[in-house]
Amino acid sequence: MAVVIRPDAPEVYRVKKGDTLWDISAMYLTQPWLWPELWRTNSHITNPHLIFPGDELRLVINEDGEAELVLSRETTDKPQKKLSPEGRLVNKSNTPVPVLPWSVIAPFVKNAVVLTEEEFNALPKVLIDYDDTVRYATEDVVVGEKGIVSDEMLVLRQERSIYDMQDNKIGVQIRNLASATLIPTQNQQYSLLKLDKSRMETRTGDRLAPVSIMPEPEDIQLRSAENQRGHILGNLQEHDLMGRLDVIVIDLGQQHVAPGTVMGIYKRGPVVQGDSRDNVDKSWLPEIFDSEEGPQLPAIKTGELVVFKTFARTSYALILDSSDIVRRGDIIARP
Questions:
Q1: Could you give the residue ranges of the DSSP H alpha helices within 53-180?
Q2: Where do the LysM domain residues begin and end (predicted)?
Q3: Do residues 187 and 250 both lie within one domain?
Q4: Is the dihedral of CA 299, 300, 304, 310 positive or negative?
């Protein structure tokens, strides 16, 4: 697919700390999700999603008259180390700029998951603090129901239910409150756990689950949606009005989208009363919105989103561009 270069795209740009791949892509392209196309003839770039602070990008025209990016990367003989967000010592030079603003999506990538209501209710409960206090935090010992299956556990709390456009409950949003370590005991009826790394206070009724219930972050690689169509179900703060950099829930799950899928956000046009379908544009956009009441005017694109975490029937996405207010029920489709 041919890419359209923005007229104000810089000929030379040095990547800096704080950049995101989406921002850099939008600097060069009118359709940022086509970022890999700028590198299609550059055999020296094996993964266009791995761009590092200090890299110099040069926009050139190749012998076929096509625009492409050439990368120049600084090297250093002295390895530089830093602490990762998880507390591991990693090579500083091996930390690429993120595809999306990490500070916005990190709480949802690391500490949030969507389960079915049945899955959540089947998890063992926190019963009481060992010292019989009301709320518990780091270093406290709590008593849990039997059914603990791992030495390392998470404390979880249901935050809200997720409903599809027909008001069917399709999942519950779960927040990771703390980590907990199982304390060996001879008691067969209850479990003892010591809380550590508490992010919020634990309460009676919170649930306990093995750390494996929180999926590992997946690589985010930009790609355009194709034939997928769905809806925005809301944002994670339960606001009625949404916009740029809001984290939202959509009604497409793992079978339909993957982290990095870019989708357009569209508003419905009004139904055309008393008109013939032969008089309506046959492009794919009106077909999304045609209803039993009659054809609707072409949809208006109001923004773009990128999926960053997927579950069985829903996914989390980040709105990266919005020219109008986004609401529950807005359509998402190929950008």
A1: 102-111, 117-121
A2: 11-59
A3: no
A4: negative
Tell me the DSSP string of 192-257. Answer: EEEEES-SS-EETT-EEEEGGGSPPPPP---EE--S--EEEEEETT--SSB-TT-EEEES--TTT-
How far apart CA 120 and CA 139 sit, in angstroms, is 25
200 and 234 part of one domain: no
184 & 248 share domain:
no
Helix (H) or strand (E) holding 289: helix 284-289
The last residue of one of the domains, among 213, 239, 269, is 213
Q: What backbone torsions phi and psi does residue 15 show, to the nearest 5 degrees?
A: -65, 135
* Tokens coding 238: 């339960």
Both 325 and 234 in a single domain? yes
Residues 119-144 pLDDT 10s: 999 999 999 887 777 677 778 889 89
Among the listed residues 73, 18, 3, the one whose alpha carbon sits nearest the alpha carbon of residue 44: 73
β partners of residue 183:
192
| Predicted structure pTM score | 0.81
**Size of the chain in residues:** 335
Rg, the chain, Cα only: 24
Q: What's residue 105's pLDDT? A: 92
